[in-house]
Amino acid sequence: MSLSSRRGPEDTVEICPGKVIARRNRSLTRIAQRFGFLGDRPMRWAWSKTVNFGDWVGPYLYVQRTGRLPVFCNTLENGSHPVNFTVGSILHKVQHDNQAIVWGSGVMQRDARFARPRDIRAVRGPLTRARCLELGYDCPDVFGDPAILLPDHIAMSAPATGKVGLIPHLDHHAEAERLFGQRDDVTLIDVRRSVPEVVADIQSCAFLLSSSLHGLIVSHAFDRPCCFVAFSKPLVGDGTKFDDYYLSGGITDKVQARRLSGEESHETLVQAATEAAMPDLASLRDGLRESCPF
């Protein structure tokens, strides 16, 4: 099974193997739920005009784990039916009390505000848990971004010897293309594609550098060294999502992003990846599997 990222008609939201169709008609969704359809399928994920593979890891895992199709829910409207919140810095999208079932989601900013979830099974890391507790919400100390479970569903493969891959955040793609696009020794990995396609590119590389959080997470999940890097444009948020992730894997010293200029030698890039902090994700996987709501 694979998920692509093509949008479909505006009156539908479903994710199918091989294609994406969007079901946005909330009234139809509620009618289906009233008659016992859809079950635990409602899910909230980030869905922007430009595809970002990290946003689609949650729906991808849902399909892989259940064999069914999740239904996108806006969550701006109040509703009694539970909605799964999984991969991503999306807790600020929890708009109504007693609606969200949280499994591995995180906060975008340290002081994020969001409604009381119905059930928190796991969160991305200690900073997200701390914010939940500050807001008065019960939160277990079960950590991990569910993207670390991708190796459960996509086979590990051997990399090409010495190959360096650069995974720019969606907002950094143009700058990365300008700085590194003409180099034969660096493979640019485009996050504007499906989860399996990006994972395949990541696994083809022996050394990686990423300004994308899920570029880092997926690289580490498939046991590839990956260096956190930055470009000239700052990302949205205060950096909490990166700190949260590293802390979840036992990295207590703050990891600073390395600013890239495009002038770095191949050897310098390899060294940066090799010496980069590598979170311990193995210790998190069982807790995530056991706490999964679907």
Characteristics of this structure?
single chain, 294 residues, Rossmann fold, five-stranded parallel beta sheet, 16% strand, disordered N terminus
Strand order of the main beta sheet, please? 4-3-5-6-7
Tell me the fraction of residues in β-strands, as a range. 15-25%
Distance between the termini: 17 Å
Order of helices and strands: EEHEHEEEEHEHEHEHEHEHH
Poorly predicted tracts of residues: 1-26, 33-38
Report the principal-axis shape: globular
Structural class: alpha/beta
Overall average pLDDT: 88
Biggest β-sheet description:
5 strands, parallel
Over the alpha carbons, how many angstroms does the gyration radius reach? 19 Å
Number of strands: 12
Structure annotation, total helices? 9
The helix fraction, in percent, is: 25-40%
Count of discrete domains: 2
Give the structure's gist in a few sentences.
The protein has 294 residues and is an alpha/beta fold. The protein folds into two domains: 11-149, no CATH class; 154-281, Rossmann fold. It has nine helices and twelve strands.
Structure in words:
With 294 residues, this protein is of the alpha/beta class. It folds into 2 domains: 11-149, no CATH class; 154-281, 3-Layer(aba) Sandwich (Rossmann fold). 28% of the residues lie in helices and 16% in strands. It has helices spanning 26-34, 57-66, 126-134, 173-180, 195-203, 213-221, 240-248, 266-275, 282-291, and strands at residues 11-16, 19-23, 42-44, 71-72, 83-85, 100-105, 119-123, 164-167, 186-188, 207-210, 226-230, 258-259. Strands 4-3-5-6-7 form a 5-stranded parallel beta sheet, sandwiched between helices. Strands 9-8-10-11-12 form a 5-stranded parallel beta sheet, sandwiched between helices. β10 (207-210), α6 (213-221) and β11 (226-230) form a beta-alpha-beta unit. The radius of gyration is 19 Å and the shape is globular.
